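Re-run with default settings, no changes from the original entry. Doing this only to confirm the output is reproducible before filing.
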Amino acid sequence: MRRTYTDDGLDPVEPNLRDGEKLHVPVFHDETIIRADELRRCVYVRKGRMPLRKKGPGRAIHVSDFIVEQTGRLTLSESQLQENATLPKEKQLRSTDSREVIYPGKNYDGFWTNDKLVEQVSVLAYINSFSKSHLP
């Protein structure tokens, strides 16, 4: 079962779970690439002169993240971060959110591949982050 929402205010409606049923929480994967020098369509120039433009679209930043319907980005809350900080060093999470940022391209971090996505998903910190955020 999953949550539904009212039509007028988009308020969450909790489902009535029977014995043995669990709440399904959809987790969405989001990727985006941001470039430093996006080409502008409109420029102001002096009469008869052409603007100098960079040859390439600029350096890229690739962001891969997981989104949860109820809370937004998959990350620990402030209280969970404080709780994590009180744990012994060996039990603390290495990462407290699921965001992965790389700088793709030759001579940088390479490109985003399926292997990098699998590594991002399989890191125990992300799984713990999700279970701490959504399980009792």
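The two ends are 17 Å apart (CA to CA). Helices lie at 78-86, 114-122, 124-134.
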